[in-house]
Request: fold
Amino acid sequence: MSGALRVVLGDQCSHSLSALADLDPDRDVVLLAEVEAECTYVRHHKQKIALVLSAMRHFAGALAARGVRVEHVRLEDEGNTGFLAGEVERAAARHRPARVVCTHPGEWRVLEDMRGWEALTGLPVEIRDDDRFLCGLGRFRRWAAEHGAGEGSNTPGKLRMESFYRDMRRATGLLMDDAGKPEGGRWNFDAENRRRLPARAPVPKPRRFPPDAVTREVMAMVERRFPGHFGALDAFAWPVTAHDAASALEDFVANRLPLFGDYQDAMAAGEPTLFHGLVSTSLNAGLLSPRECCDAAVEAWKRGEAPLNAVEGFVRQVLGWREYMRGLYWLQMPGYAHLNALGARRKLPWFYWSGETELACVRQVVKQTRDLAYAHHIQRLMVTGNFALLAGLDPAEVNEWYMAVYADAYEWVELPNTHGMAIHADGGIAASKPYAASGAYINRMSDYCRLCPRDPKQATGPDACPFNFLYWDFIARHADRWEGNARMWPVLNGMRRMDPARLSAIRAQAAAYLSGLS
Ligand code: FAD
Ligand code: DLZ
Ligand code: SF4
Reply:
């Protein structure tokens, strides 16, 4: 064969993939390889493995139906080496291509691996940009440099999402009027997006995509081969094809987008998905594009079917946060993963895996995560993330947990969110101040506290909410650091105005609680 071996990874199931751009169906072969190592480098939630492998099988089928020569290596095929590199080497030996073509992967460790494929196969390996994002990595690097943060430089406080987002709005024209001004006269409607869900408010059930025969076969294999991985498979209902992903987006836009903005930060017991999009698994696997998501939301606003605060809120997540997180990841890696600015060392308590804790908020989030491989942003940030931050849990263990429990987890997006946003391990590169909050925040934004034996209004005593004493202990523990961060001064001043005896009692209770965590 004189053509190219085109390698498509499990999260690259996109017909528009750069590695497939100039595909010659007569000479080229597309390789998709299911490999053990990608299923186990962290012990992914069973639903994530099932989703990715099923998406690969469907995508391989769709390519073959278009007349493309596809080599799909299944996980249990005889001779499967269990590694991406091993499968590329085997395919190269089988097909004798003139070159290998692939698309930049989503994780640093895979890029490192890919860089070794030339030596392994003796063939030229072309790694093309992943242009399924709205901001190329070159563009992001230029933007970062213009804002005083060059590659790999640890520059807390310099880069801010809001400024990046505005640049991206201008660059894409999304929600911009003819005069080049933001629609509605404002860039940001965040202040209107912080409502608590009223009791008994009806919440639409998201469209489900029950497993077809291909997915069921994969699910049975996952259960058989990865029985010890976290999570249940029974409720699997994720889209695994571009067709179903488009249908999921349509369902969101029609039924949940109108209230997405209002209740973006709300949490409610028994309502795991509220008005969220449920599009991250499809976006991250390549079944949906970010432009498609933004355009669908903006069109709904133009038709008068969704208000601007909802549409802008959604566009900000996809065009702003998602692209910003990816840019930061590639700007900061590989050093970023090892930062531990707050010197956090405590082991992850077992209840992160079992959900067995009296803390109702944590229990709700962990149990829905086990059942659905999903929690929405505020649950990840302000419940499990906030607890990890306040309790000083080891960043490596916390990151491993977030990678292992969500169906949308890939390091390029998980790491900056966890390390940067949730636990401040990067010392302020991703966010200017830690998202630390006491029980009052959780009580304001959810109804979890009414299910809890702890009292969100108490900071000491047997009924005190741990988020309260841990919060003040956290502020006090790192007080010197907050001196240098003006955004933390109001909190610091609040702590200093506290009766010293009360602060001591709070800190003593925090110490006793932390020493009992296991
Ligand atoms: P919606 O609320 O409907 O938002 C729409 C889309 O915007 C999402 O699908 C997502 O693509 C994008 N988005 C929203 N917030 C963010 C964000 N902070 N960063 C990047 N994209 C965002 N997202 C992942 O895709 N994978 C992860 O592994 C991941 N890990 C996270 C870990 C922590 C500690 C935190 C705080 C957040 C994490 N997020 C992650 C971001 C966010 O929680 C999820 O994208 C979101 O919950 C997915 O659900 P949804 O599609 O219903 O989102
Ligand atoms: C997540 C995942 C899983 C579970 N399995 C595979 C696989 O068998 N083969 C493959 O090519 N990709 C898989 N993936 C996705 C990769 O882990 C992903 O490409 C990297 O995490 C980079 O984003
Ligand atoms: Fe969570 Fe505290 Fe409320 Fe209990 S009282 S649900 S621990 S915030």
Q: What stands out?
A: The beta strands are 4-7, 29-33, 70-73, 99-103, 125-128.
